[in-house]
Write a structure and sequence with these properties.
Elements (H helix, E strand, L loop, with lengths): L4 E4 L2 E3 L11 E7 L7 E5 L7 H4 E7 L2 E6 L9 E7 L7 E8 L4 H4 L1 E7 L17 E3 L3 E2 L4 E8 L7 E8 L7 H22 L1
Parallel strand pairs: 3-13, 7-10, 7-11
Antiparallel strand pairs: 1-2, 1-12, 3-4, 5-6, 6-9, 7-8, 8-9, 12-13
C-alpha cells in the first residue's frame, strides 16, 4: 500500500514506504498581507502552475486558509503543526501551519490549514493533548520570506514530493528614509535648542 511520508528540517518521519524522485511540486502559502485571505499556489518541477489540479479550497477568509492537497496515497491519521512567531521562537504567536494526514488521503487529500492572528479565533487549529498521533514540526520566526515548513513525500502525484513553503508578514520596521528624516528632525531640534541657549 502506498503511504505518505513527511520529511522535516530535523529528520525524517516515516509514515510508510518512501518512493519519490529528486524533484517535486512546490506549494506556496502566502499570508503576507494583513486583513485579506491568504493564497496558495502549486508549481510542478518544470515551474508550471498546477494549483487547479492539486488544490481544493475548503475555506478562505481574511488571514485564514483551509484546503485539500491531492495525493494518491493513504495516510495514518497523523496531525502535524508548526507555529510562527513575531519576534522569537516561543514569543508572540503569529501564525499556525497545520496538516491532517487523512487515512483516506487518496480520496480526500491532505487537509492543510494556515491561521494568522488576525483571523477568527474560532478557526485556530488546536491540538488535542489526548490525541497521541500528533507531531510538532520545528517552529519559525516570521521574516516576510517563504520558509520551507515541511516536505511531503510518497504523494504519487507529479514527481512524488511536495515542498511546502509559508510566507507570513514580517514585523514592521521603520524604513531607512523614515529613520533619516526622524534623525534629521532630532538634529534640527538639538541645533535650535543649542542656538537659544547661546
Amino acid at each position: 500500500m502506498k503511504k505518505v511520508v513527511l520529511l522535516t528540517a530535523v529528520g525524517v518521519l516515516v509514515l510508510g514506504l518512501f518512493s519519490t524522485a529528486a524533484r517535486g511540486d512546490s506549494v506556496y502559502i502566502d499570508e503576507s498581507v494583513e486583513g485579506v485571505p491568504p493564497t496558495v499556489q502549486v508549481f510542478d518541477a518544470s515551474g508550471a502552475d498546477v494549483t487547479s489540479n492539486r488544490v481544493t479550497i475548503v475555506q478562505n477568509v481574511p488571514e485564514y486558509i483551509e484546503f485539500r492537497l491531492k495525493v494518491n496515497s493513504v495516510g495514518n491519521g497523523l496531525i502535524v503543526w508548526s507555529d510562527f512567531f513575531e519576534d522569537f521562537v516561543g514569543g508572540s504567536l503569529s501564525d499556525r501551519f497545520w496538516v491532517f494526514v487523512d487515512p483516506k488521503a487518496d480520496e480526500n487529500g491532505l487537509l492543510v490549514k494556515f491561521w494568522s492572528d488576525g483571523a477568527d479565533p474560532a478557526l485556530f487549529p488546536t491540538i488535542d493533548p489526548n490525541y497521541s498521533n500528533n507531531f510538532h514540526l520545528p517552529e519559525w520566526v516570521e521574516n516576510g520570506e517563504f520558509q520551507n515548513v515541511i516536505i511531503i513525500g510518497g504523494t504519487y502525484v507529479g514527481d512524488g514530493t511536495y515542498s511546502v513553503y509559508a510566507k507570513s508578514d514580517a514585523p514592521e520596521v521603520p524604513e531607512p528614509a523614515t529613520l533619516l528624516l526622524l534623525g534629521s528632525g532630532l538634529l534640527g531640534l538639538w541645533g535650535a535648542r543649542k542656538k537659544f541657549k547661546n
